[in-house]
Amino acid sequence: MKITVGMGSCGIAAGANKIYSRLEKEIKDRSLNIKLAKVGCIGLCKYEPIVEVYENSNITSYVNVSEDDIPLIIENHLSNNILIEKAIKAKNNNIRNDYFLKNQVRIALSHCGDINPEDINEYVELGGYQALEESIKLKPETIINEIKNSGLRGRGGAGFLTGLKWESAYKVASDIKYVCCNADEGDPGAFMDRAVLEGNPHAIIEAMAIAGYTIGASTGFIYVRSEYPLAVERLKIAIKQAKEKKYIGDNILDSNFSFNVELRLGAGAFVCGEETALIASIEGKRGEPSKKPPFPTTSGIFDKPTLINNVETLANIPQIILNGSDWFNTIGTEKSKGTKVFALGGKINTTGLIEIPIGTPLQKIIEIGGGVLNNKDFKAAQTGGPSGGCIPKELIDIPMDYENLNAIGSMMGSGGLIIMDEDTCMVDIAKFFLAFTVDESCGKCSPCRIGTTRMYEILDRITKGQGEIKDLDELENLATYIKESSLCGLGQSAPNPVLSTLRYFKDEYIEHIENKNCKSNTCNFLTTYIINDEKCIKCGLCYNNCPKNAINKVNDHYEIDQDKCIKCGLCFKNCKFKAINKL
Amino acid sequence: MKDIDKINKILDNYPKDQSSLIPILHEIEDLYNFLPVDVLNYISEKLDISLEYIYSVATFYNSFKLYEKGKYEISVCLGTVCYVKGSENILKEITKILNIKNGEITEDKKFSLDTTRCLGCCSMAPVLKINDDIYGSVKIEDVKSILEKYE
Lengths: 583, 151
Description:
The complex is a heterodimer.
Chain A: E1 2-6, H1 9-13, H2 16-29, E2 35-39, E3 51-55, E4 58-62, H3 69-78, H4 99-102, H5 120-125, H6 130-135, H7 140-150, H8 162-171, E5 178-183, H9 192-199, H10 201-215, E6 219-224, H11 229-244, E7 260-265, H12 275-282, E8 306-310, H13 311-323, H14 325-329, E9 339-346, E10 352-357, H15 362-368, E11 378-383, E12 389-392, H16 402-407, E13 416-421, H17 426-440, H18 446-463, H19 470-485, H20 489-493, H21 496-504, H22 506-514, E14 529-531, H23 541-545, E15 551-554, E16 557-560, H24 570-574, E17 580-582
Parallel strand pairs in A: 1-2, 5-6, 5-8, 6-7, 9-13
Antiparallel strand pairs in A: 1-3, 3-4, 9-10, 11-12, 11-13, 14-17, 15-16
Helix pairs in contact in A: 7-8, 9-10, 9-11, 10-13, 17-18, 18-19, 19-21
Chain B: H1 4-12, H2 21-32, H3 37-47, H4 51-60, E1 72-77, H5 80-84, H6 87-98, E2 111-116, E3 128-130, E4 133-135, H7 143-148
Parallel strand pairs in B: 1-2
Antiparallel strand pairs in B: 1-3, 3-4
């Protein structure tokens, strides 16, 4: 019997560490012959902490486990009497039969949540490093053709054909070349790369070694953001184990090929996900982007040809080598092959990672995610984070692929997919993303540094009821200038959230400007607080707590002086009887 | 300068060139929780990189701080999902309880408050981090009891 505990960052946040220690103790105290293992994130975060019991060929999954459940779980299995109550109610009580997971096609996320990422043997047993073994017997050109034929495109956002990138790095003559894995997953709301790094780090190392062999590089860098300490830890362990087993290092698998992998930590700068900024950061400089061309495949890290691929892109490589490009080619759409992992979050019932063939309609994704939270109305979905845009309700049946999303002013991006309901204010969301880019702009070029700040100021005015209709034209003008003249992808895409909300939700902007009204009651300055006399019990709590003395006692009841009110919302928050209404 | 042995040990692990600067700053940050100026001066001498250059790099990245942090470092996630789920109100609540703003430290140096742009635990939004402990699905009314754990 084997028991596994899901120990990705989200599992740990839900208390998986305590669950693991308790299991360890129970097994020891009872002197049981049970193997206990940590596994990565299966991507069903709503159910964390997840404990799974492997018995013969049966898997029983226990979800939302608390410490007190542990003795029960063990006892029930020892007496062959499976405790159904906590186990997920599905066929075989296996979480993989849950609607959310059953409807996915897992390639990049394969093995995540199934294997112990800290034990290389578990990866090898499932065919791990076989793709590397096969590759080093092939000619580099054969591998490049295989990747080209697969149709795989970069999953970091831009969607450039991976095979072409490999080919150009291969063709540049240089005695020193580098492979670099971009694991600086900065898009807020995207966490698929973290899941792969934490759940199946060897897939990335294997893919990097294959890339190194193909283009003729002997050093690989993994640039991982420092906000992911668990991913860093697991990568360190994985690199050490892979070296011991001779999958990386000198004379890999007794061949002439040598390849070493080094870790480089990011330091909390969003712009470093942009490849030229990433290169600067690895060289020990400020992470400022530089002009392209030259492209990194010609002149990258320390001016040497450098192949940079994103984590999810690399995770596909071993699978393509093992199963053949023709297999990969059958999944997805004509121009976008394979699958894409989306991090489904926001106002949706089942939050987590969802990997589906590219081209799956948004509606289907929402359906797999169990629909909008609390049965509210779907308003829009945001893709591509601060560089992307929104998909409104009328386009809910759009197939999610690179071309379609670009055409409607959104983008695939790295895969953050945030569902928003009727309570979300789109002007506020646009302002939020712009605040992000203003914060994260490196300041090197003025269109991005100054332009985004000016746009933010306009949006700030609008959300405070001080906007004018001509501001909307000004926003579009500024957006065009910034897009055309910024140095790197961050600036060039910074106006997208504003442009896309203006395109689909212009009426909301106008409502803010002309009627000084925020329908979703998000923009504080536009909210009017009123006391509901029917519910008010005259306790005086609001009166006593108002920092501006804007609440007056008139005759027997309380009234809010709208001229004095600064919309801080303290009265609303303090009222125990829901007697303050927001209008 | 105290801890000079520890600093020398860190420096010994890296080649003495510019590309080692960021990894070294990470280790100094881990050691002190911020980058003390006398340590930076020492590194500048040892690596033969000007203090101005080190300053320009250190101020570029959010992970490096030139001022002291609290014994407990609170970090409120303001990533998109957390924001949509109301993490700004969590931040306000902490500000109210501890009477410090984003980027400040309490007088007794116990707590410091910062914001971060996504810890990747989006499915548990809103998320709050205190040192290495991550709290998910935080409600405003939970904030007080969470902070009390660190009294």
